[in-house]
Specification:
- By secondary structure, this protein is α/β, with parallel strands linked by helices.
- It has one domain: 3-Layer(aba) Sandwich (Uracil-DNA Glycosylase, subunit E), CATH 3.40.470.
- A 6-stranded mixed sheet has the order 1-3-2-4-6-5, sandwiched between helices.
- 43% of the residues are buried.
- Bound molecules: uracil.
- Uracil (URA) binds next to helix 3.
């Protein structure tokens, strides 16, 4: 499938009920052949209105986190979510919704073919790295998942709620930058 075919198919997806209450589908954003991919949980209110991931307050913080290690969604990363439609009142996506939606993300990962995949928060890490992932203990560690180096950072919304986690996240970001320079230095040549 091409990107266009995939995105068009996702637009008409009825695999769970979230399409009924969403405004816009939030498919993904950034550079489609990036070597580094970020995956969040699901759209919030602003994302639902604009159709783009991470554009609210959490998104501003994510952009700052990217900037700290010289990344930019317009230049060298791709960003997507576990679920593409906003769960009502920003509740966590249900397991059934995650399972219904995950095929779209798997197809995106297949098209991007990232070397490094960064999960934002517990939910993405439990889906993509391992079901018992403990974000407070395992953030910043790298896991080889079918040849892709995967890691997780605290979700930007969690950092806004509890800024005491920011110093650890800064260390994780710097380690991530070193890993990018090692595995896919072309990321910094764009
Ligand atoms: N939180 C997420 O996990 N994803 C978004 O796109 C926005 C907020």
């Amino acid at each position: 499938m091409t990107w266009e075919e995939l995105e068009n198919a996702a637009e008409t997806c009825r695999r769970c009920a979230l399409w009924e209450t969403r405004t816009k589908l939030v498919f993904g954003a950034g550079v489609r052949d990036a070597r580094v991919m970020f995956v969040g949980e699901g759209p919030g209110e602003n994302e639902d209105l604009q159709g783009e991931p991470f554009v609210g307050r959490g998104g501003q913080l994510l952009d700052t986190m990217l900037e700290i290690i010289d990344l930019d969604r317009r230049r060298n990363v791709y960003i997507a979510n576990i679920v593409k439609c906003r769960p009502p009142k920003n509740r966590d996506p249900l397991n059934t919704e995650q399972e219904a939606c995950i095929g779209w993300l798997r197809a995106q990962i297949g098209l991007v073919r990232p070397k490094i995949l960064v999960c934002l928060g517990r939910i993405a890490a439990q889906v993509l790295i391992k079901p018992d992932f403990k974000i407070s203990q395992e953030h910043g560690q790298f896991f080889d998942v079918n040849g892709v180096q995967m890691t997780a950072l605290y979700h930007p919304a969690a950092l806004l709620r509890d800024p005491r986690r920011k110093p650890e996240t800064f260390v994780d970001l710097k380690n991530l930058q070193a890993r990018i320079r090692e595995l896919c230095p072309e990321t910094y040549e764009r």
